[in-house]
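Repro case for the chain-ordering regression, as requested:
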Amino acid sequence: MRPHIDHDLPDRFPTDPSGLPEAGRPQLLELADGDTLDLHVGPVAKRLGDTTVRMLAYNGSIPGPTLKVRQGSEIVVHVENHGDLDTTVHWHGLRLENRYDGVPHETQAPIPVGGDFTYRIQVPDPGLYWYHPHIREDYTQELGLYGNLLVVPTDPDYWPAVDRELVLTVDDLLVEEGQIAPFSPAETSYAAMGRYGNVFLVGGDPDLRLEARAGEMVRLWLTNTANTRVFNLSVPGARMKLIGGDSGHMEHQEFVSEVLLAPSERAVVDVLVDQPGELALEHHTPNRSYRLATLRVAEGRPGPAAEAFAQLRRAPELEAERAQLDHWLAAPPDKVLALVTQMDDPTDMPADAGPVTYACPMHPEVTSDRPGRCPKCGMKLLATSAPAASHHDMAMDHDDMAHAPGGADGIEWEDDMVAVNRQTTTATMHWRFLDRTSGADNPTIDWQFTVGQRVKLRLVNEMDSDHPMHHPFHLHGAGRFLVLARDGAVEPNLVWKDTVLVRTGQVVDLLFDVTNPGLWMAHCHIAEHMPSGMMFSFNVTRR
Ligand SMILES: [Cu+2]
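-- result from build under test --
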C-alpha cells in the first residue's frame, strides 16, 4: 500500500518516502584517537516487508553506523541536522564531558533543521554504548535515529576470545495498514504505556539473516532501542553465556537461557554454535514467542571455542566492589525516589452524564459504580458507560493478544489497553518522580553531589499510583552505578550500569559512583514517560 501524501497537513510530520534514498546497511567505522566523523541526520525510504515507509537515519542507515573506538581515546563528531525537527545527540552510557551530553537547553542549544553541532566524545570505559536524539525520542528514535558505539578495551584480555561478533539493536515499530502509526508534532501520544510496536526490527531489519559456522563462538552485542518494550532474548538450541552488561563485563560470567533487556539496556552474550543448521534469536514473554532474526550455521570445523566457552571468568575489580557491599546494603539510602503517576480520565465524563460505570482498561471484567483502583493491577478505573460515544472509543482492543494479567512479574509485555493508551498524551498522563527522602511528598528534587562521592539511591515503584507499571530508570554520565538489591534481594552478579529496570511495585537500591561534574539528567527511558514528567536534572560539583 502506498503511504498517504500529507503535503497539505502542516500539523503532521511528512510520511512520503518518494524520491528519498533507500536506507542502507549500517557501516562499521573504526575511529582512532582524534578522528572526526561526519554524522548526517536525514530522511530515508525504508522497506518493511512489502511496504516502503519514510524513516529517519544517521548517515543513511538504520541503525546508524556502529562506531568502534579504543578505550581512552577522544573522537570528534560533527552532526548536521536535515531531519524533521530540532535535534541533539545523546551519547548513552558514556561518562563524557557534560557539555557534550546532548541535553537540549541544559548542555547545549538544540540543533535546528539545517544547523550543526560538533561533539567531542570521550570513552573512558570499555563496553557497548549507543547514541540517539534527546528531543522527541518517541518520534525520532522510533523512526530510526539510533546507533551503537563499541569501546574496545585497552586490556586485550578484558573479553574472552571470540570467532565472530554481531552488534545488534532490538526494536519494535508500530505499523498500521502499511504505514507507521501517526505522530503529532505538537504532543507525545501513547503517554500511558509508551508506544509498543508490532513489527520487530533487529539491526533495523524485520527479517534479519545472519551467518555463522559450526564450531564458532559468536558474540552478540545487544541493545534495546525500543520506546517502551522489554525484550526477553534467547537463542533456543544454542548455549549462551552472559559476559557483559551496560558498561563492561560482569562480575562473573554465567550460563543463561535468556537475557532480559529493558529499553536502553545492553547485554553482551557469547553463543556457542556447535551444529550446522538454523538458529533463531527469539523474544519470549510469559504468553508468546516472537522470532526476531535467523542465524544460519554453515558446516565448520570444531575449534577451541567449546573449551573456552566452558570457562567462567571473573572480574577482580567487581569482586572487590562486592567485598565492601555489606556496608552499603546496611546503610540507609541517601535519596529515596518514588515512581508514580496521576492519570486524567481520557473519557472526560461531564458531571451530568448520568450513571457511570468504571472499569479497569486492562481487566474489563473489573467494574465499579464509583471511581477507584483495580484490585488486580492497581490501575485507576476509567469511566466506560455513558455517554455511548465514548464507550465506543473506549472499546478494549483485546484482539487476539494473549494477556499477562497486570504483569504478574511486574513487566507489561504488551499494550493491553491500546485504545486508551493511544489517546493519552503528556497533557493527560502525569508521570512523576517524587523525592521521598524526607518521608514527605516533595516534588521539587534538588540533588547536589560532589565528584568522588558514592551515593545510595532507593527507587520505589509505588503501587499506590493510577497506573503502576515498569520503568527503566536512566542516569546520564555523571557516573555509573551498581545495583545493590532488588526488593531486598542482594544483586547476585554485579556490572556497572546506567539504566535499571524497576518492575511494578519493586524497590531497587543503587550505589551511584559520582565521577563527572556538571548538570546531568535522570529519567525514565520509556520515550513517552520522560516528556510526561518522569525526568529531572541534578548537579555535580568538583571537589
Ligand atoms: Cu516510565
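Ordering looks correct now. Residues 1-9, 385-406 have pLDDT under 50 and may be disordered.
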